[in-house]
Amino acid sequence: MILALVTLALTAHAADPHAAGVAPEVALSRLVDGNRRYIADKPIHPGQRAADRTRVSKGQTPHTMVLTCADSRVGPELLFDQGLGDLFVVRAAGNNVDDHLVASLEYAEEHLGSRLLVVMGHTACGAVKAAATTPAGTSAGSPSLDALVADIQTCMGPLTPAQLKDPTLRDAVHANAVGAGKALLAESPLLRHAVETGHLQVVPAVYDLASGFVTFDAPLQASPSTGPTPAHEAAAPAAAKPAQGDDHGATHGEAPHH
Question: Would the pTM of this model clear 0.70, i.e. be above it?
Answer without folding.
Answer: yes
